[in-house]
Design a protein that fits this description.
single chain; alpha/beta; 19 strands; elongated
Length: 462
C-alpha cells in the first residue's frame, strides 16, 4: 500500500534532475535533437526523458509552456517518470513545493490484491520543504483512497470501525461504538433502520471519536461522515451499472477519518468529535420499505419514498448527535447524490452552507491548494419538496423540485447543529477516468481545502 514516506524522500545521491522547459527556453545540443525526434516542444504537461552518453536516463524535461506552472502536473510526473530517484532542478521555491506535494498525491497505487508491486519513482524533498507536513497530508489522502478502493467484502461496517479505532489509538483519542440493536436503545433509530437488513457480522453502527475534549476553552469541531459500506439501493434496488462502484459509498466516512488524522496529527488547538454512521444498505426480509415512516434521533419523522436515498437518513441521526456537543463548526462529507454529478460532474464537489464566512474561507482554501469546490445554494424555495403528508419529512424530494443535490442538503439542514456554522460537501470520492497521476478509483475531494481552512482559522490561536 502506498505511503508518502515511500515516494517523498529526504535525500538521494543518485537522484536525477527534472527541469522545466518553458516556451522557447527548450533543450540545446544533443538534447535538442532528441527532443525533436520525440516531438517534444515544451507544451504544458509534455515529459521527455533525456538519455546520457551511455543511453541511461540523464535528466527529464517537463513542459510548462509560457504560462504559470500547473502544480498538479506533478501528479502526472509520479506516474510517468521511470522508477528511480529524482529531484526538481531549475524551479522556483513555490513551484517546487507545489510540484512535490502533487507528486506525492499522484504516486498513490492500490495494489493490495496484486501479486507483485511494480517499482516506482521517488522524489527528493526540495529545499525549504516541510517534508513531515506534506507526508501527513498525502497519507491522509491515501487513507481516503485506500478505504474507498477496498472492496465492500473487506471494508464493511466492522472494518470502518477498525480504521476508526486504529486512528483513535494512534492519537490518544476516545472511541465509542454503538452497534446492532443497541442502536435502538441508544436512540439512533434511522441508522438501525437503514442497516438492519445486513448480515449480523455487518451490523450497523454509530462510531464516535473524541479528542482533546477536556480542553473546554478551545473551539469544538464536529466531523460527520456517511459510511455506507455498500449500497444495493435496498428494496428500491439499483440497476447493475449503478451498483458496480457502490463500495465507494462510504467515501464520506473515509474523508472525515482522513481529516481527523490531519487535525490530530497537527495538534490543532481545538476539540474534535468525529461521528461516522457505518451501515450496509442490504436486502432481506427485514429491510426497511418504501412507505415506512422512520423515527430519528431528533424526534422528526421521515416517510421513506425511496430506500436508495438512505445516506441522508443515517446522517440525520449522526448530525443530531453532533449537535448535542454544541459544536462551533460542523463539516459533513457524504457521497450523497447522483444529482451533484449531473450538476457539476465528478471532479467538482458542491459545497452547501448558509454561513457566508465559512463559505468564503472554504472556497478561498480550495483555490489556494488546488482542491476545487463549488458553492450551491440551500434554496429555501425547495424546502417544501422535502416535507411529507403523513410525516415531518420525506427522504425523496418531490419531483417538481428536480434539484436533487440541493434538496438532499436541505433535508440534512433540518438535522444540522444549531450552534456554530455547518457545511455539507457532496463528494464523489472517485476518479472515473484513468490518466497519469489520477488512476481510476478512490479520490480525496475537499479534504485538503477543509484542512487548510481549519489550519488558518485555528493554528494561530494556540
Amino acid at each position: 500500500m502506498t505511503a508518502a514516506i515511500d515516494v517523498l524522500i529526504a535525500a538521494s545521491d543518485a537522484a536525477l534532475p527534472v527541469r522545466p522547459a518553458r516556451g522557447t527556453d527548450g533543450p540545446a545540443g544533443a538534447a535538442a535533437v532528441w527532443a525533436a525526434a520525440h516531438d517534444f516542444t515544451g507544451k504544458p504537461g509534455q515529459l521527455l526523458i533525456v538519455p546520457g552518453p551511455d543511453g541511461a536516463p540523464d535528466h527529464a524535461l517537463l513542459g510548462v509552456g509560457d504560462k504559470a506552472v500547473d502544480a498538479m502536473a506533478g501528479r502526472a510526473l509520479a506516474a510517468r517518470l521511470p522508477a528511480g530517484d529524482w529531484r526538481l532542478d531549475g524551479w522556483s521555491e513555490a513551484e517546487s513545493h507545489a510540484l512535490a506535494l502533487a507528486f506525492a498525491l499522484g504516486a498513490y497505487r492500490f495494489d493490495r490484491y496484486k501479486a507483485k508491486s511494480a517499482p516506482r519513482p521517488r522524489l527528493v524533498s526540495p529545499p525549504g520543504f516541510d517534508l513531515t507536513a506534506t507526508r501527513a497530508l498525502a497519507d491522509a489522502c491515501f487513507l481516503v483512497r485506500r478505504m474507498v478502493d477496498t472492496p465492500a467484502a473487506d471494508m464493511g461496517p466492522a472494518e470502518i470501525e477498525a480504521e476508526a479505532r486504529q486512528l483513535a489509538e494512534a492519537h490518544g483519542a476516545s472511541i465509542s461504538v454503538t452497534a446492532g440493536d443497541a442502536l435502538l436503545a441508544a436512540n439512533y433509530p434511522a441508522v438501525h433502520a437503514v442497516g438492519r437488513a445486513a448480515a449480523p457480522h455487518r451490523a450497523p453502527r454509530l462510531i464516535e471519536i473524541g479528542w482533546n475534549l477536556d480542553a473546554t476553552d478551545r473551539p469544538l469541531i464536529a466531523l460527520v461522515g456517511k459510511g455506507v459500506a455498500f449500497d444495493s439501493g435496498g428494496l428500491d434496488i439499483k440497476q447493475a451499472a449503478g451498483m458496480r462502484n457502490m463500495k465507494k459509498d462510504m467515501g464520506g466516512a473515509a474523508h472525515v477519518l482522513g481529516l481527523a488524522r490531519l487535525i490530530m496529527g497537527a495538534r490543532l488547538p481545538v476539540r474534535l468529535v468525529v461521528l461516522v454512521a457505518a451501515v450496509e444498505n442490504a436486502i432481506s426480509g427485514d429491510a426497511f420499505r418504501p412507505g415506512d415512516v422512520l423515527q430519528t434521533r431528533k424526534g422528526l419523522t421521515v416517510e421513506v419514498g425511496n430506500t436508495d436515498a438512505e445516506g441522508r437518513l443515517i446522517l440525520a441521526d449522526a448530525l443530531t448527535r453532533a449537535g448535542e456537543h454544541s459544536p462551533d463548526l460542523t463539516l459533513d462529507f457524504a457521497t450523497l447524490t447522483g444529482a451533484a454529478r449531473i450538476a457539476l460532474g465528478p471532479e467538482l464537489p458542491p459545497l452547501y452552507t448558509d454561513d457566508e464566512t465559512l463559505a468564503a474561507d472554504l472556497l478561498a482554501a480550495a483555490a489556494r491548494v488546488g482542491d476545487p469546490l463549488w458553492r450551491l445554494p440551500l434554496w429555501p424555495g425547495y424546502r417544501t419538496s422535502v416535507e411529507a403528508e403523513i410525516a415531518d419529512l420525506r427522504n425523496d424530494s418531490a419531483p417538481w423540485a428536480q434539484a436533487g443535490s440541493v434538496t438532499a442538503a436541505l433535508f440534512l439542514q433540518s438535522f444540522a447543529p444549531q450552534t456554530g456554522a455547518w457545511a455539507h460537501l457532496d463528494v464523489f470520492a472517485w476518479n472515473p477516468r484513468a490518466r497519469p497521476g489520477w488512476p481510476e478509483g478512490g479520490e480525496a475531494q475537499g479534504l485538503r481545502a477543509a484542512f487548510d481552512m481549519l489550519e488558518r482559522r485555528y493554528a494561530a490561536k494556540g
